[in-house]
Amino acid sequence: MLIQLKDLLTPDEMRQARARLDAQAPWVDGASTAGGQAVALKHNQQLRQDSEASRWLQTLVAGALQRDPLFVAAALPRRVLPALFNRYRAQGSAAPGTGDHYGRHVDNAVLRLPGGSAAEWMRGDVSCTLFLSDPDGYDGGELVVHHSLGAQAFKLPAGTALLYPASTVHEVTPVTRGERLASFFWVQSLVADDARRQILFDLDMNLLRLRARHGESTETTALTGVYHNLLRQWSQP
Ligand code: NI
Q1: Which residues surround ligand 1, an ion (CB under 5 A)?
Q2: Which of 82, 131, 165, 216 is the least crowded, having the fewest Cβ atoms under 10 Å away?
Q3: What pLDDT score does 197 carry?
């Protein structure tokens, strides 16, 4: 499922984030962190992960996710990989006249968690892109998600995030004017299967609406039980 988290970052947080990214941020070639087939497809820059700016921004994004009930309801997060940050420019690392872009690809199924000496891995179930640039500030740079119903292009307001299944083929089209800043990260969900997450999300959202309209009733209590019993059946430690 595709879910937009509107205003994940407040305008004030957006300003602070932009200040960190616009300043002398330590950008490195995005291809340096890509593996296998992605190297040839990825033409952008990425904020150095061990930088102070990166750590500060990761804390900001993690805090915003924690306070967003829609994120929790949609992703049912078990683990969230610390956010990464990228930049696509019209005059970037891609061939002249092309503009930075990231060709069609699928994200890795298994991701390495940072820190610690023992290698720890998580499964990537949900991919997330948080838009950090005003859409008027750049041309191109759309996130296109290819799924069973076709392709859908997204160019969302600064501060808004898109959650989409990590299993989908997706791409970022070339930026032909200005620059596009974004954050991206992955979530391992308690429920690995996207269709099951969708069922739980629909039940959860409609229960909220029922309660708002009619208050608590025997039926809403029973349906809440159904929600939790399905989650019990489907969740993985
Ligand atoms: Ni990707």
Answers
A1: 107
A2: 216
A3: 98
